[in-house]
Specification:
AB_hydrolase_fold; two-stranded antiparallel ribbon; transmembrane; Rossmann fold; ten-stranded mixed sheet; 2 domains; alpha/beta; membrane; Pectin acetylesterase
């Protein structure tokens, strides 16, 4: 296709001012896209968002230097069962494309942005599966179609495009914010084996997989991640058994790639991580009572475990903020842009952990790269059919649901009814405790409580 025709296609494909390109009509090559402008690329094929009536899937590309690549995994919650996936408007995950504006590390005008000249591939997120899903669920969306989570296929399309359009890289950065940080951790090993680079780094912004015990394995298995090709034999077997954790995946990557900096960015009491932890507890019928202080303790324990690896560093700040990188407030965190400017490191360079507060041994950690990475450009995993009954997409009859689903929903309704009756009786009959005691203003004071 002639260059003029490509330009016309980009203009005609604009959505609300966002240029777009369809891989079914064009190669959408890097050199054809306008530099420093976000272009939405539609890969077609099996890519899709979670619901049957969700818009078409696409990922964003912001062209810059062909020798510097930033792969960024977008965040946006998770949908992991029939209740969380029931309604598009109330689902705790993004179910449609949300375009990333040129804020934060995507800003091309701020001189203090350490990634302003990178080519950025922004892996948009609308599948609710941490970018690793490949499953056809048994339950239905509001169009009476089975919910399908294809985040792995979506991310694979973006990574394939990047691999085809860049060669030897002087700098490779893989990053993600919130649940996107989990996707970055799970994809890092595959990406490092796929690209040729002189220096590389992983940036995990505001999600270190702080989840209830024994829930990660079933989540990953339920997403259909086990057969995607992201995991090698041992990890694949653990995934199939429902025992694989994101922590184990990341630790293996850190141990195997000692020349790659692994950097975590977090606030000490991240409110969204607290909410997600409690949401998983509720879904698994566990006590949902994690407080910000509880989370801080769990976070510090996790970071201390990662701190055993020489190539792991942290940037910690007080407060409950969730994610930093994709927001313009990134530049308000004065030390953060400067801290990131040293990544990824070249041989002889050093980066030190940063902590605003009392962080123990974390604040004294430094990592110096002594040699360049040794890597060979490998092959990406293959795209595969989703787990589940892949051929059965249309389900117009509720009778096609699994035989046990009616009992499952009946049990949920019974529990809800019992709770309502209990609450009603409590209101009708005040307890002897509340009847014999008057409350003072001091009873509602938070002082001294955790």
């Amino acid at each position: 296709m002639a260059r003029g025709a490509i330009a016309a296609a980009l203009v005609l494909g604009a959505i609300g001012g966002e240029p777009s390109c369809h891989l079914t009509d064009s190669s959408c090559s890097l050199e054809q896209l306008p530099r420093d402008v976000s272009t939405l690329i539609y890969p077609g094929g099996a890519t899709r968002c979670i619901f049957s009536d969700s818009p078409e899937y696409g990922f964003q590309v912001i062209p810059g230097s062909s020798e510097k690549l930033l792969l960024f995994f977008q965040g946006g919650g998770a949908c992991f069962n029939d209740v969380s996936s029931r309604e598009a408007d109330s689902a705790p995950c993004l179910s449609h494309l949300v375009l990333q504006p040129l804020f934060g590390i995507f800003n091309r005008e701020k001189v203090s942005n350490p990634f302003r000249d990178y080519t950025i591939v922004h892996v948009n997120y609308c599948s609710g599966d941490l970018h690793v899903g490949n499953v056809l669920r048994w339950y239905l969306d509001r169009q009476l179609q089975r919910v399908e989570q294809r985040g792995y296929v979506n991310a694979l399309a973006a990574v394939k495009w990047a691999r085809k359009n860049v060669g030897q890289l002087s700098s490779l950065v893989v990053a993600g914010s919130s649940t996107g940080a989990l996707g970055a951790q799970l994809w890092m090993e595959t990406i490092l084996q796929t690209f040729s680079y002189q220096a590389a780094a992983l940036l995990m912004d505001s999600d270190m997989a702080i989840l209830p015990s024994r829930t990660e394995g079933p989540l990953l298995k339920g997403f259909g991640a086990c057969d995607t090709g992201l995991f090698e034999t041992d990890a694949k077997q653990k995934c199939a058994a429902g025992e694989l954790t994101i922590q184990a995946v990341l630790e293996q990557t850190m141990a195997r790639h000692k020349e790659v900096t692994m950097a975590a960015i977090s606030s000490l009491q991240d409110r969204m991580q607290v909410r997600f932890y409690n949401a998983v507890c509720m879904a698994e019928m566990l006590p949902a009572d994690l407080t910000p202080y509880d989370f801080e303790r769990k976070l510090m324990t996790r970071l201390e475990e990662y701190n055993r690896y020489p190539n792991f560093v942290t940037y910690l700040v007080p407060g409950d903020r969730n994610y930093f990188l994709p927001l313009e407030a990134f530049f308000g965190e004065a030390a953060l842009p400067q801290w990131l400017s040293t990544l990824p490191e070249l041989a002889g360079q050093q980066i030190s952990s940063f902590c605003s507060g009392n962080c123990g041994t974390l604040s004294s950690k430094s990592f110096m790269l002594t040699s360049h990475p040794v890597n060979q450009k490998g092959e990406l995993p293959k795209e595969s059919a989703p787990s589940g009954e892949a051929k059965l997409i249309q389900v117009p009859e509720l009778s096609r649901l699994p035989w046990w689903s009616s009992w499952y929903h009946a049990a949920l309704l019974s529990v809800a009814l019992a709770l309502c009756i209990g609450a009603f009786l409590d209101r009708r009959s005040p307890s002897s405790y509340s009847a014999s005691r008057s409350f003072s203003e001091d009873d509602f004071s938070d002082e001294g409580k955790i």
